[in-house]
Amino acid sequence: MKFLDQVKIFVKSGDGGPGCVSFRREKYIEFGGPDGGDGGRGGDVVLEAVSNLNTLIDFRYRQHFKAERGQHGMGANRTGRGGSALEIQVPVGTQVLADDKETLLADLTTAGQRVTLCRGGDGGFGNAHYKSATNQAPRKAGPGWPGEEHWVWLRLKLIADVGLVGLPNAGKSTLLATVTRARPRIASYPFTTLHPNLGVAQVDEQEMVLADIPGLIEGAHEGAGLGTRFLGHVERCGTLLHLVDGAQSDAFEDPGVDVAEAYRIVRAELAEYGAGLADKPEIVLLTKADALSDELLAERRAALEAACGQPVAVISSASGRGVTEVLRRALPLVRARRAAEAAAHDAPAEEAAAGWTP
Fold it and tell me: Range of 149's domain?
């Protein structure tokens, strides 16, 4: 399945049905009076977040969504049937933005969350509504109100426990393929990964969701290399695994970049982007340890620890060295975030219950 994390769609709710002009016609009743019914209400357009989707690719082939209009009123004071609501399913983590791509209309972060994008138009009144003492035979009916219509942007920000960040060709996809069943594209050149990948890793009978974010480059916070879209996925991750290429492949555009500078480039982009990315818990990894001698590995590990100010884990995804230990280090951070989210979710319900009196 192809990945798509941003799309523009058109949504329109149903128009209200027109009212009816009708008069009662019955044997032996000469002046039956008006009995035209009201029109039905148009259907709403509703977005629902579901857990079994992780891409917006379906919206590439259909961009226009229109709800059913209300039926017209009928005689004998019969109201028209209301239009059916149009429900659109989107992945969890989808943001709804206005046409300007800046105004946030909705943020669907939990499965089952629903939001009404467009409200259906009200039905028009039938002529029975306009009957009065001075006008007992009105021949007037309302046409029904039009529905709402909007162009909106859907932007998907993947929700994962752990996000893998780093410069291109740092070994993020290889690590994801090693610890999960995901099979991202892997090659020895930069920008092999062009879209985020998700995988579920299991460690000590616990599961965590990992997101492989495409490599960041200098200027990513300004959109270089689609950086703003990639950094948007990092917003949803509770913990970051910052991978630094210990071998510093010659395929990188600046072979002179050392491990400390590689770390600073990514940290600078996270800080410039904002949204709290620089404050997220971080575990720093020195990758491709199998390609380095012990002396060179120790030298680069010391340089990286001096740059980041914390212990650096040395791993090799190819041989599996240090991989399980890294996941075990991330597990307490994942648990703490999940507990905090559960407490924040339960707090409003507890406050409402405390304030309720029978």
Answer: 1-156
